[in-house]
Design goal:
50s Ribosomal Protein L19e, Chain O, domain 1, Non-ribosomal Peptide Synthetase Peptidyl Carrier Protein, Chain A, 2 domains
Length: 150
Amino acid sequence: MDLSYQKRLAAEVMDVGIERVWFDPQHLNEIKEAVSREAIRELIAKGYIKKKQIKGVSRARANYLLQQKKKGRRKGQGKRKGKKTARLSKKEIWMMQVRAVRRLLREFKQKGVINSKQYRKLYSQISAGRIRTKNYLKMLIHKIKREESA
């Protein structure tokens, strides 16, 4: 049963491509008899001829990858292009380091490990760039405590 003419007419009436026209398999004889646009419109109204949905590209994989990247995955050496400073500027890296060291220093002051005078001195050294890491700060405080007790 050749329904190519009806398919073409239906595509024109529904303003879609021929591939997107669907015929109800139980009503093929009625569809075959439809030779005018008006007859095709009636069959569309009855639901014997329908438009197929557009096949889009799924975002499921892309969404999964974005989720993984938010968690911090997929950011290893092999995924990087450009210099280290292309991903984070030198200033941003410095800010992150300084804030981490200052946070630790604040904790030590609140716990009573160091007094206000020592806090001020160490704080200014952090700003100056003398103390760059948390480990170095811990080492200095340990040294200060040893000197005090001796």
